[in-house]
Specification:
Length: 345
C-alpha cells in the first residue's frame, strides 16, 4: 500500500509525496518517514484515524482500512492528511507523472474534497496541470440543461440559498433593480469582506425568481435583512422556506466515501420519479458504534454509516411514503424518518 501525502504547507516532489507502507510498518515507522519529509521531529507528530490517536507500536495495516484519511498533527496543530492508495491507483498515478514529467513540483490545497486528475486538468490552465488537486477547481454537482441552476449547488450548501421574487407582480422576471439595490448595499456595508457567495450558483434568474446561493448563514441572513429596506418591496426568503421543504432523516452506508451529490445521483437513478434537486442537507453525523441507537440505525456494519438530516420537497416525501417510507440505495432499502424522532422546524 502507498500513502499520498496531502500537506498544504509543504511542497514536495512527486516521489517524495508518496510513502510506501510495508507489511511490518508500524506507526512509528510512518512518523520516521514523515520526519524526513517535512522536517518536523518525530516526537511531535501525531497520527489519528477517526479522531483516535494511534499508538507508535500499532501496525499501520491493522489500524487503517482506507475508509477515511489519516490525519497528521504537530502536537495539536493540524498539518495535513495521508490518503491510502492501492497498487492500481499507484500505477495510474505513476503513469500520470510520466505524462507530466515537465512538472517539477505539485501544489496541494488545504481542502479535503477529492478531485480526479482528469477532470481537474480539463478545467485547469496549463500551468497548473501538474497539480492532482487544483485549488481553483469548482466542486459543484453535475446538472444538465433541464435542471434548475440551484441543482448545481452541493446539497449541504443549498440551505444557504435565498429566493427573491416581486411581491406585487410575481410574473415580473426583471431583477435589474434588485441587483442595483444590492450593489449599493455592498458599497455601504461595513462587513462586506465577510460576505461570501457560492461559485456554483451565485445569482441567477429562473422562473421569475432570483436565486442567490450564499456560502454561510451570516451572508444569507445579511441578504434577507438588506432586502427588507427595498422599495417597492420584494419577497425574500430562504431556500427551505420558499419551497416549503419538509424535514426528515435517514442513514446512508458509505461503502466508499462519496460526495452527497453522487449519493443523491445514485438515489435518483434507483428510485424512479424521485428528484433530489431541492434536497438540503442540514446535518451529517457519523453513527458511533458505541452510541445507544447504533444497533437500531446502522445499515451496514464494518463501514461508515452517516445519519443525514434533510429538507426535501413534498413530492419527494409523498413518493417515499408511497414506497413504504424507504429509499433504494445500492443493495439496501433505507428507512426514512419524517420528523418522528426529530424536533420539526
Amino acid at each position: 500500500m502507498f500513502l499520498k501525502v496531502l500537506f498544504p504547507n509543504f511542497h514536495t516532489s512527486h516521489h517524495e509525496s508518496l510513502i510506501e507502507v510495508k507489511e511490518n510498518y508500524k506507526i512509528k515507522d510512518l512518523k520516521f518517514q514523515l520526519e524526513k519529509l517535512i522536517k518536523i521531529p518525530l516526537g511531535r507528530l501525531q497520527i489519528s484515524y477517526f479522531d483516535k490517536i494511534l499508538a507508535d507500536d500499532i501496525l499501520v495495516h491493522n489500524a487503517y482500512d482506507k475508509v477515511k484519511d489519516l490525519v497528521v498533527r504537530d502536537n495539536d496543530k493540524w498539518l495535513g492528511l495521508l490518503r491510502g492508495m492501492d497498487d492500481v491507483e499507484f500505477q495510474m498515478m505513476v503513469r500520470d507523472m510520466d505524462l507530466e514529467a515537465s512538472c517539477s513540483s505539485m501544489t496541494v490545497p488545504s481542502g479535503l474534497s477529492d478531485v480526479s486528475s482528469s477532470s481537474s486538468s480539463a478545467r485547469s490552465p496549463p500551468e497548473r496541470r501538474c497539480s492532482p488537486l487544483d485549488p481553483c477547481a469548482l466542486h459543484c454537482c453535475e446538472a444538465g440543461l433541464d435542471r434548475p441552476p440551484y441543482a448545481r449547488v452541493n446539497p449541504e450548501d443549498r440551505r444557504y440559498g435565498v429566493v427573491i421574487m416581486n411581491e406585487c407582480d410575481p410574473c415580473d422576471c426583471r431583477f435589474n433593480s434588485v441587483l442595483e439595490f444590492l450593489a449599493r448595499a455592498f458599497h455601504d456595508a461595513e462587513d462586506v469582506a465577510s460576505l461570501s457567495f457560492s461559485e456554483c450558483t451565485a445569482a441567477v434568474s429562473f422562473d421569475c425568481l432570483l436565486v442567490m446561493v450564499c456560502k454561510d448563514s451570516d451572508t444569507s441572513d445579511w441578504l434577507i435583512r438588506t432586502m427588507r429596506a427595498m422599495s417597492p418591496p420584494y419577497k425574500c426568503s430562504n431556500f427551505i422556506k420558499h419551497f416549503e421543504l419538509v424535514r426528515c432523516s435517514f442513514v446512508i452506508p458509505m461503502v466508499n466515501e462519496e460526495k452527497l451529490c453522487r449519493v443523491f445521483g445514485i438515489i435518483e437513478k434507483m428510485n424512479a420519479c424521485l428528484d433530489t434537486k431541492k434536497w438540503c442537507v442540514v446535518r451529517q453525523t457519523l453513527l458511533e458504534t458505541c452510541s445507544e441507537d447504533y444497533a437500531s440505525k446502522v445499515i451496514y456494519k464494518g463501514h461508515n454509516n452517516y445519519e443525514v438530516v434533510v429538507y426535501m420537497d413534498k413530492a419527494s416525501r409523498d413518493h417515499i411514503l408511497n414506497k413504504c417510507g424507504k429509499i433504494k440505495f445500492l443493495m439496501w432499502h433505507l428507512p426514512v424518518d419524517f420528523c418522528t424522532a426529530l424536533p420539526c422546524q
